[in-house]
Write a structure and sequence with these properties.
The protein has helices at 2-79, 84-88, 90-97, 140-148, 156-173, 182-203, 227-237, and strands at residues 115-126, 132-134, 138-139, 210-219, 239-242, 246-247. It is an alpha+beta fold. The protein has 2 domains: 1-103; 113-247, no CATH class. Strands 1, 2, 3, 4, 5 and 6 form a 6-stranded antiparallel beta sheet that branches. A hairpin with a 5-residue loop joins strand 1 and strand 2. The model is unreliable at 1-10 and 13-17 (pLDDT under 50).
Length: 252
């Protein structure tokens, strides 16, 4: 009986010691496990962020490459000789190319200009007394020429914007200045805005409500001609076209 009691009395103490040890080990494991979990979470978070950044960068690069390839392809169809593909997708090609990416050349068939054009503009505004004040003519072509002359790296804007906008306008309007398509209306507004911006830059803060363009077309003189011959030929063969007054934005 004594042995039984001793054994029974010793068992709870042993169990208490074992329970304390288990609690200590469990607590230590919980602390270590929490630290390890936090470490893993941090590394996983960094990995996820890197993957997201990489995917965003790859997507942006892919979009840029796709846009570049699409642009090159559409411009190629624009300048290439007429073919089945360019005819089938002519509306999409024109919508992308005009007016900002228009090209004045064709593969295998260059089409250089054979005339010189002098594009001038004047503006009109309403004076405080109600009268209409009209400015003098400003030679916009001469302004572009002065920006190009003696400039080793002239801007594309000075070289082509005004000239090409007028060429496109003539192709779409003919000689009556009446737009017959959405593209013709777009080119009319494009030409008007270019001229209005040039006049606004020149006149500073002076407001105007209307603008008018005048285009003088001069044939290119033959090689070897003297200055006198060029002036005589220009005066004889010059063609002047006066466009209608166009309404411009109130903040021009």
């Amino acid at each position: 009986m004594t042995g039984v009691r001793r054994g029974m009395s010793s068992c709870p103490a042993a169990r208490f010691h074992e329970t304390d040890d288990e609690k200590n080990r469990a607590g230590l494991g919980h602390v270590l496990g929490g630290a390890a979990t936090e470490h893993v979470r941090r590394h996983v978070g960094e990995y996820v962020r890197r993957q997201v950044r990489r995917r965003v960068l790859n997507t942006a690069v892919a979009l840029c490459l796709t846009m570049a390839l699409a642009h090159v392809g559409l411009v190629f169809l624009h300048v290439a000789p007429s073919n089945t593909v360019s005819q089938r997708f002519s509306s999409q090609v024109d919508a992308w190319v005009y007016p900002l990416f228009e090209q004045n050349w064709r593969l295998f068939a260059p089409d250089p200009d054979s005339v010189n054009r002098q594009i001038s503009a004047r503006t009109a505004h309403t004076a405080p007394d109600g009268s209409i004040q009209v400015s003098g003519w400003i030679d916009l072509t001469a302004v572009d020429a002065s920006a190009i002359e003696h400039n080793a790296f002239p801007s594309h804007t000075s070289q082509n914007m005004l000239r090409r906008s007028w060429t496109s306008y003539v192709e779409l309007h003919g000689g009556d200045d009446v737009p017959r398509s959405d593209r013709a209306v777009m080119m009319q507004r494009y030409l008007r805005n270019i001229a209005a911006d040039r006049m606004a830059e020149r006149d500073g803060k002076r407001r105007f409500e209307n603008i008018q363009l005048r285009v003088v077309t001069l044939p290119v003189a033959a090689p070897g001609s003297t200055d006198r011959d060029r002036r005589a030929a220009a005066a004889k063969n010059a063609e002047t076209r006066l466009l209608p007054w166009w309404k411009v934005a109130s903040d021009a």
